[in-house]
Amino acid sequence: MNLAGRDLLKLSDLTPAELLALLTQAAELKRDPYRVDLRGRVLGLLFQKASTRTRVSFTAAMAQCGGSTIDLLPTVMQVSRGEPLQDTARVLSRYLDVIAIRTYEQKELEAFADYADIPVINALTDQFHPCQILADLLTIQETFGQLAGLTLAYCGDGNNVAHSLMLGCAMSGIHIRVATPAGYEPDPGVVQQARTLARNSNSEVQVLQDPQEAVSGSQVVYTDVWASMGQEAEAEARQAKFLPYQVNADLMKRADPEAIVLHCLPAHREEEITTEVLEGSQSRVWEQAENRLHAQKALLVQLLGAE
Ligand code: CP
Ligand code: NVA
């Protein structure tokens, strides 16, 4: 695997083999968290939206390896006064070794990456959330000792997390079933790309409307908020449409008895997931959140060419 100097704007920027190698390295770093030396390396965090897990796990990952982070708060940067992203990207490339960006449009992230000379990491856009899926796959692998051949059911909104999950599952041989209300399906272009990747891993990508059909016999049940950041105005209107997609004890009866439940967090209890399931014995959400740290540390090590 040689990811030195590359960007991670979406999961399919990696080959399936690179993705699996990254997960192996993440598992190794989880066992030996302080082994890597990133002294003197600086990660910039340019976040246009709120974040707990992504921001703190990236910061902790750098700190554990002797590197440092700079919080590039948009409100105090000149971008808030109209300095073009292209100029910001070129200047920041002279100070930083790597940058993680959370923003709205994927195009904005891509434009930044075009002008930056350092690796650019997608820390969430409206379209994708690749770092999340690295941790999700690590959690699934830890639980089942494998990825290929499992079935993951995603119930809810065809959003950024659903898109990256589709790509990640298709790349690693997990069958994915995405169940959404009509009108909230994942982007057809992403579905197409996932199906192309799935052909090479002998997995299947299904887009459904029936959550019970999606969950039936699956080993992983996944959900995310019904209204993502930036969609707050739609939240109320979405409630009734999404209620049948709630991950609750009844829906879980359809899954494999050994199934685990994942949620990228933050969760809205009694909306997309009940407290009973979130706090129940099948939930792996806290392990999943922890794995953000290990997975992103592996990513940083690779993009910085540190080993
Ligand atoms: N799951 C996730 O990305 O969480 P944050 O929004 O807290 O970073
Ligand atoms: N889909 C959610 C994920 C948050 C981590 C959002 O974009 O708000």
Plain-language structure description:
By secondary structure, the chain is of the alpha/beta class. Helices cover 42% and strands 13% of the residues. The chain has twelve helices and nine strands. The strands form two sheets. The chain has a five-stranded parallel β-sheet. Helix 2 (53-64) links the parallel strand 1 (42-47) and strand 2. Helix 3 crosses helix 4 (106-115) and helix 5 (130-144) crosses helix 6. The longest helix has 19 residues, at 285-303. The chain is globular and about 55 Å long. The model has no long low-confidence stretch (mean pLDDT 98).
Q: Can you give the helix content as a percent range?
A: 40-55%
Give the rounded overall mean pLDDT.
Answer: 98
DSSP summary, beta strand count? 9
Run of helices and strands:
HEHEHEHEHEHEHEHEHHEHH
Shape: globular
Q: List the ligand species.
A: phosphoric acid mono(formamide)ester, norvaline
Number of helices: 12
Largest sheet data: 5 strands, parallel
* Residue share in β-strands: 5-15%
- Low confidence ranges: none
Question: What's this, in brief?
Answer:
Helices cover 42% and strands 13% of the residues. The chain is globular, with a radius of gyration of 19 Å.
